[in-house]
Amino acid sequence: MARLVFFVLIFAGQLIGGFSAQKQPPSNNGKLITILSIDGGGIKAIIPATVLDYLDKALKAKDPTADLADYFDVMGGTSTGSITTAMLATPSLDDPTRPAYTPAQIVDFYKLNGPRIFNPSRPGNGPLFDGEGLHGAASEALKETRVGEALTNLVIPAFDIKKQKPFVFSSYKLEKVPYLNALLSDICISTSTAPTQFPPYYFENNGVEFNLVDGGEAAVNPTQIAVSEVLQQNEDPEILVLSLGTGATKIEETFDADQAATWPKQTWAVIDTNFQGRAYTAITEYYLSSIFSGFQSRNTYLRVQV
Questions:
Q1: H helix intervals, 118-237
Q2: Which one from 56, 70, 186, 214 is the annotated catalytic residue?
Q3: Which residues contact 163 (CB under 8 A, 6 or more apart)?
Q4: What is the sign of the dihedral through the CA atoms of 66, 72, 73 and 75?
Q5: pLDDT of res. 22
Q6: Model confidence at 164: pLDDT above 90
Q7: Is residue 298 scored above 60 in pLDDT?
Q8: Which of 23-32, 124-133, 217-226 has the lowest mean pLDDT?
Q9: How confident is the model over 5-21, as a mean pLDDT?
Q10: DSSP readout, 71-100?
Q11: Catalytic, out of 37, 79, 82, 190
């Protein structure tokens, strides 16, 4: 934990030194754009939420009135990472200029709602969880807040099972694609419905039908998507990224090529999701490390994976 705190405090210094807190950051061509990206990972979302609690306290030591949404121009999240970003960006009912939740309160949210969300109440051959706990927790936390009402720009990927392609909810696209201005609760439920764990989520907004499952099917680590949105909307920006993982899983080398060659189709189907998640995360890391250490050396990228 000490090493983690060290990295977070260094990043806090970069934020303070390179970016002045402001409400509703616009698209700043040629200026510094800060991105917070949070991986998916189910109940392990409590890990990046804890990291953000340290960062929040470090930033408040400089300015007690500033919130994380003031320091990040863009927040991207996948699966439960999207719930964290949405809670950080949802305006308070008492003061619409401030977020409804602090990172410490988000940690408590996962502690309280984890057993409710991951309650194996649906036996049989269907998904492991019925999704009612997820729907209730997200709806109660985010209420009627829509993407366009967030305190900063949001980028949240999901996967459309009807069209068989990734789908990205982005604040940057609202003007041209108004039906993307959906309820944050609907979006967060959609990107959190991991196949085999929760049933798919269907909803409509502005007459458009959405048939979505977990954003981890497209991007467990949403950093690359968030960076792409920024590059599409801003001319030659300087970028500062904090990418938070949900903990590295210890990999046991229990299979060899000869053994795998005899696996039936059912075995491959069971382990396919884990392989895909690790592959997506690894290739995203490779891509981002390349662009941030190479020709865009002035850009800063910090990945925290406990």
A1: 132-142, 184-191, 223-233
A2: 214
A3: 211
A4: negative
A5: 46
A6: no
A7: no
A8: 23-32
A9: 57
A10: H-SEEEE-THHHHHHHHHHSBPSS-TTSBS
A11: 79
Q: Is the pLDDT of residue 1 over 60?
A: no
Cα 204 to Cα 32, 168, 181: the distances in Å are 36, 15, 11
Question: In which residue are the tokens 């616009």 written?
Answer: 26
For residues 84 and 244, give the distance between their C-alpha atoms in angstroms, rounded to a whole number. Answer: 11
Q: Check: CB of residue 230 under 8 Å from CB of residue 33.
A: yes
The DSSP letter of residue 234 is S
Q: Where are the alpha helices (DSSP H) in the chain?
A: 2-18, 46-60, 68-71, 80-89, 103-117, 132-142, 184-191, 223-233, 257-260, 265-293
Handedness of CA 165, 147, 220, 186 (dihedral sign): negative
Handedness of CA 68, 69, 71, 74 (dihedral sign): positive
CB 109 within 8 A of CB 70: no
The CA–CA distances, whole Å, from 120 to 81, 110, 135, 167 equal 21, 17, 15, 28
What is the pLDDT at residue 279?
A: 52
In whole angstroms, how far apart are CA 261 and each of 142, 193, 257?
47, 31, 6
pLDDT mean over 291-306:
66
Could you tell me the two tokens for 297? 């050396």
User: Above 90 in pLDDT, residue 17?
Assistant: no
Confidence of residue 189 (pLDDT cuts 50, 70, 90): very high
Helix, strand, or coil here: 175?
coil
Q: Residue 216: pLDDT band by 50, 70, 90 thresholds?
A: confident
Considering only CA atoms, which of 205, 212, 207 is closest in space to residue 181?
205
> Residue 55 region, left (φ>0) first, then alpha (ψ -120 to 50), else beta?
alpha
272 flagged as catalytic: no
Name residues whose C-beta falls within 8 Å of residue 63's C-beta, 6 or more positions apart in sequence.
21
108 given a catalytic annotation: no
